[in-house]
Amino acid sequence: MATVNSREIVQAIIDGDGWYPGDKEDGVPQVVKIVQYNNQFNGGIAYGLIYRGEDRMRYHTAPAVHNPQTIWERN
């Protein structure tokens, strides 16, 4: 599972319509959904990135993910 802890990175992906700056040109798949959640280790905020072709609900069903909330989704 692709997880980041930086709200700034998440905002850059949202602003880039699913791509972090430079990723589109490098052939990195597009992010289609971002889920904010509390991790199981210390309850800290983390952001799950779901790329095109992956299960869009995987952060909502993973046992290590607490309080998942979709904060951005591309149709």
Care to describe what's here?
The chain has 75 residues and is of the alpha+beta class. The protein has one domain (2-73). The chain is 17% helix and 37% strand. It is built from two helices and four strands. It has helices at residues 7-15, 58-61, and strands at residues 2-4, 31-39, 45-51, 65-73. Strands 1-3-2-4 form a four-stranded antiparallel beta sheet. Strand 2 (31-39) and strand 3 (45-51) form a beta hairpin. The longest helix is centred in the N-terminal third of the chain and has 9 residues, at 7-15. It is globular, with a radius of gyration of 12 Å. The chain starts with a strand and ends with a strand.
Q: Work out the helix count.
A: 2
Lateral arrangement of strands in the main beta sheet:
1-3-2-4
Order of helices and strands: EHEEHE
Give the percentage of residues in beta strands. Answer: 35-45%
Helix content: 10-25%
The assigned structural class equals: alpha+beta
Question: What is the gyration radius calculated from CA atoms?
Answer: 12 Å
Structure in a nutshell:
This protein is α+β, with helices and mostly antiparallel strands and 75 residues long. The chain has one domain (2-73).
What are the defining features of this structure?
single chain; 75 residues; alpha+beta; four-stranded antiparallel beta sheet; 2 helices; 4 strands; globular
Layout of strands and helices, then pairs:
Layout: E1 2-4, H1 7-15, E2 31-39, E3 45-51, H2 58-61, E4 65-73
Antiparallel strand pairs: 1-3, 2-3, 2-4
